[in-house]
Amino acid sequence: MLIGKTSEPIEDNIEPDAKKTYKYKDSSLKSRRAERGCIDMVIVSNNQDNNKFAKVRVRSIRIPQIGDKFASRHGQKGTCGMTYRQEDLPFTVEGIVPDLVVNPHCIPSRMTIGHVIECLIGKLAALKGHTEDATPFTRFNMDIKAKDMHDCGYQKYGNEAMFNPYSGNKMEALIFIGPIYYQRLRHLVDDKMYARSRGPVVALTRQPTHGRSRAGGLRFGEMERDCIISHGISRFLRERTFLVSDRFRIHVCSSCGLMAIANIEKGEYKCRNCSMVYLTFNSGPKEEGAAYLPSVAAVCC
Q1: What percent of the chain lies above the pLDDT cut of 90?
Q2: What is the spatial distance between Cα 175 and Cα 161, in angstroms, rounded to a whole number?
Q3: Alpha-carbon span 144 to 227, nearest angstrom
Q4: Which of 121, 200, 245, 271 has the fewest CB atoms inside 10 Å of its own CB, making it the most exposed?
Q5: DSSP secondary-structure letter at 298?
Q6: Rounded to an integer, what distance in angstroms lies between the CA atom of residue 253 and that of residue 275?
Q7: Strand pairing partners for 259?
Q8: pTM of whole model > 0.70?
Q9: DSSP state of 119
């Protein structure tokens, strides 16, 4: 529980002559489903109507993991596909180990040349100890930058020889490596990962609620249905599409066939159409999804 509070009092006793008693409703604010963390800051103050309010900030430490989303400043976004220990990554002759390994096939089709230029210019700026102009629409001479890189004792296009972390042997191909600014986006796998068996339903449609925050159902779409049909497990398909989501049991009057009002705790079933009340005395075994009332005695109102 984050904030303990109660709502406006309501009358607990509605009899006119009785003494009025008031009951407060518990409206405490609790943490969301699957939300973890520690309290970072608490603010308690009064608003313009002089009513007390409280704000609680929850902080959680997130270590990068598989599924978290990262992006460079050039629209090259992607999720982390695998994490390795430092000793399992290739290293340069200077002992530098990369923090991020990117598939080079993402550059030509998206034409994000600035991504490569930033990596090259950043490497040159780090070697020379000065800043570079990264303003858009400025002239960029690759030959001059390549010569400056070569003068620093590196391959002019930023490629370096790297070594196999397991055998220590030098790799045959030169690998492009350099510093670049990457940012982690707010699409974290811990905030999206979700599963449920059964949960709350909407009162109007009696279907599962929508959304992860409301413990909603997971949509079983047409493509999922096609996969189940191709596997030949039609009973599982029936369970997914009929029994799990929309299944609901109703009581039907055995005289007129219309829906009856049922009070299962008291064993009392009422049909407004027939004006009859059914009192259950000795109910037999009920069949799966039965829509009738076995062993009932009809009593006129």
Answers
A1: 46
A2: 6
A3: 57
A4: 200
A5: E
A6: 11
A7: 252
A8: no
A9: H
CA distances from 37 to 5, 28, 42, 78, 187 (A): 21, 18, 14, 26, 18
| Average pLDDT over all residues of the chain | 84
The residues with which 184 forms a beta bridge, in sequence order, are 70
Q: What domains can you pick out in the chain, each with its CATH number?
A: 10-59 (no CATH), 69-184 (2.40.270.10), 203-244 (3.90.1800.10), 261-300 (no CATH)
Helical H segments across 152-301, by residue range: 189-192, 222-231, 234-238
**What is the CA 7 to chain-centroid distance, rounded?**
31
Whole-number Å distance between alpha carbons of 36 and 31: 8
Element holding 107 (H helix, E strand): helix 106-110
Is residue 177 pLDDT above 70, yes or no?
Answer: yes
Mean pLDDT across 133-152: 89
Report d(CA 246, CA 262) in Å as an integer. Answer: 20
Q: pLDDT tier at 162 (50, 70, 90 boundaries)? A: very high
Pairwise CA distance, residues 16 & 284, whole Å: 45
pLDDT at 52: 87
Distances (CA, A) of 283 to 82, 229, 248, 290: 59, 39, 20, 13
Over residues 233-277, the pLDDT tens digits come to 989 988 888 888 777 788 888 888 888 888 888 888 888 888 766
Hey, is 198 helix, strand or coil? coil
Long-range contact set of residues 29-35: C-beta below 8 Å, sequence gap at least 24 = 29/1, 29/2, 29/3, 29/5, 29/56, 30/1, 30/2, 31/1, 31/2, 31/58, 32/213, 33/212, 33/213, 33/215, 34/194
Comparing C-alpha atoms, which of 162, 25, 140, 166 is closest to residue 84? 166
- From residue 67, give the alpha-carbon distance in Å to each of 21, 43, 63, 80, 287: 55, 34, 12, 5, 46
Helices 113-128 and 142-151 cross at an angle (nearest 10°) of 40
